[in-house]
Amino acid sequence: MSKAQPLPAIVIANDLLSGDVIFLGADKWELTHHRAAVASDLSAAESLLARAKLDFEANRIVDPYLAQVQIAGDGTPVPVHYREKMRTRGPTIRPDLGKQAGL
Q: Considering only CA atoms, which of 84, 15, 14, 75 is closest in space to residue 40?
């Protein structure tokens, strides 16, 4: 990692085929941030990014990056910054489509 990353953090990317925003979980990519693996230290963050890089190089995902989160009372990682908060909610133009339609 080239610059200091505020922690804790999760890895966010886009699925190459569907375009869905996805979150790196304990053993697979998840469609919801609720099950994202959380890095609480630099070593864990580097490990998560290394796992994501393998899928990037295999052309399964695009644009993986670390996003700072806060841990909610129920243990859910909640993004801190506006961009990532919006990415957890799905498309904003057609709320009847995408993952937000099921809410």
A: 75
Give the pLDDT confidence of 9-28 residue by residue, as tens digits: 999 999 999 899 999 999 99
* Residue 1 confidence (pLDDT): 44
Closest CA to 23 of 92, 71, 78, 96: 78
**CA distances to 9, 54, 61, 78 from 23, in Å:** 11, 15, 11, 12
- Distance between CA 85 and CA 62 in Å, rounded? 19
Model pLDDT for residues 35-74, shown as the tens digit of each residue: 999 999 999 999 999 999 999 999 999 999 999 999 999 9
Tell me if residue 6 falls in helix, strand or coil: coil
List alpha helices for 1-103, DSSP H.
42-57, 82-89
Look up residue 31 and give its two tokens.
Answer: 């469609």
